[in-house]
Amino acid sequence: MELTDILKLLPHRYPILLVDRVLELIPGKRVVALKNVTANESFFQGHFPGYPVMPGVLIGEAMAQAGCVMMLSGIDNPENKVPFFAGIDRCKFRRPVVPGDQLRLELDVLRQRGGLSKLQGRAMVGEELAAEAEIMAVLGERE
Prior knowledge:
The chain is of the alpha+beta class. It has helices at residues 3-9, 56-73, and strands at 21-26, 30-36, 81-93, 102-113, 116-125, 128-141. A 6-stranded antiparallel β-sheet has the order 1-2-4-5-6-3, covered by helices on one side.
């Protein structure tokens, strides 16, 4: 899935859109997406000058956005829904993410009930685990 298709599903836009491409998508089951981390990211200006590191909360947000692409892909009329980050559990950061890294966002559904999904997320850089978490997201009605 290319960026133009992602933009049709997610309401996020620059500078907070954190999914560049979807490599694998099984609606309601699994998604694998990419975030190319460049030196031009606005958050690197202050985190940290001289030693740029992607904030961990944004890695979690990137995982949540990828999960929401999967959730929205499997429903009718996704343009009428808006995804909300509902929670995060068991979050661990294993390595810094720096300019030039490519984050591979892998999310698998643990549970779904109604519009609420619990996902197991992993953010990889190459073969290294950068972060992992259980992510909860819910689909609300767009007004």
